[in-house]
Amino acid sequence: MNKVRVAVLGYGHLGKWHCQKVEANSDMAQFVAIVEKFPQGQEAAKANHPHVRVVSDIKDIIQDIDAAFIVTPTSTHFELVSYLLENGKHVFCEKPVCSNDLESKKLAEIAKNKNLILQVGHSERFHEAWEILKEKFSSLPTPFTVRINRLAAFKGRATDVDVVQDLAIHDLDLLMFLFAPRPVSINAHGFKIRTDKWDHASIHVEMEKGCQAIITVGRNHVKEIRDLEVFSKDGAIYVDLFNNKIYEASSSQFSDGAFVKEDSYTKRDHLLLEHKAFYQSILKGSPTVVDLKAGLNAVHLVDCSLKSMDQLNPVTVNIHG
Ligand SMILES: NC(=O)c1ccc[n+]([C@@H]2O[C@H](COP(=O)([O-])OP(=O)(O)OC[C@H]3O[C@@H](n4cnc5c(N)ncnc54)[C@H](O)[C@@H]3O)[C@@H](O)[C@H]2O)c1
Questions:
Q1: What is the best residue among 94, 99, 157, 161 to mutate for testing ligand 1's pocket, by most ligand atoms within 8 Å of CB?
Q2: Nearest residue to 71 via CA among 120, 141, 3
Q3: φ/ψ of residue 174, rounded to 5
Q4: pTM of the model
Q5: CATH entry 3.40.50.720 includes domain 4-123+271-289
Q6: 18 C-alpha vs ligand 1 centroid, how far in Å?
Q7: Taking the chain (321 residues) in consecutive chunks of 10 residues, what is each chunk's mean pLDDT?
Q8: Which of 131, 166, 201, 203 has CB 3.0 to 4.6 Å from 215, enough for a Cys bridge?
């Protein structure tokens, strides 16, 4: 295979950007179709991509593709991922890969023994900051504390799901991706402010070796905040994900006499990097960057958080692998 024949499923807020990235990777991808269920989205897709087929059902083009990007609402992911895998297609599915632990179990069973790529769209893994800090994070003295904030003013988007599935899933995945101690239990609480779903959540994660994380997410905040901090006996590391800055306060002064060191890193096109990684896995056998196991573990932490919020009790976590 020289080029991967692809379809994008869902021409909504994010689907439009995925279509743009398919076109930007024309050396590795052949853009076969856009699958959009509703007429308004279909018209917009046709206008913006006049040379691409636009259909309303994946079944209409399943024979003509090697892979698909699923960018439809979360509630549809399980059915679409299952259908594509059953038909021997590689899949890129936006986060969350499915809605809950029950679907996770069924999906793991369907994907078993299939020699197909399944990449999950945990785009927050692609910050350059994590490459810069990888060694520091892996050699942190334990116990340490992680604090992550992802807050924004109300935009009215993704209100079909809780803020845990929409936003906290990024941070629950980052926690497992960046730090070695595994989560062991979750104690979370939240508020339903504007919708009948959780609009705000504070998720306290107990990790191995006495480490802790506090993840705060909200979609009805007064301003936009995205940051991550780590505290240990060696000092503090603060990452401002909006302004692409890293600050460090060590246990001693830096060589220039300063108590705080400031660095910046390059802002990158995460979606483009995700697309490139997906094609390279299919065409060259490169390792999958965010595989199904990682996607399912993130869904499990979401499930535990929601259970804890509903029951107002800590919930035990069972991470796989
Ligand atoms: N990685 C990230 O940072 C990130 C950011 C935003 C959204 N997302 C994820 O992307 C997904 C889509 O989010 P969005 O904001 O673009 O939603 P959206 O509602 O704007 O768009 C979804 C589109 O899918 C279409 N659709 C629904 N069912 C379909 C089906 N069966 N077949 C084809 N089309 C169908 C809808 O008509 C709509 O146009 C969600 O799972 C969300 O969690 C990820």
A1: 94
A2: 120
A3: -60, -40
A4: 0.96
A5: yes
A6: 11
A7: 96 98 98 98 98 98 98 96 97 96 92 93 98 96 98 92 96 98 98 97 98 98 97 97 96 90 97 98 96 96 97 95 72
A8: 203
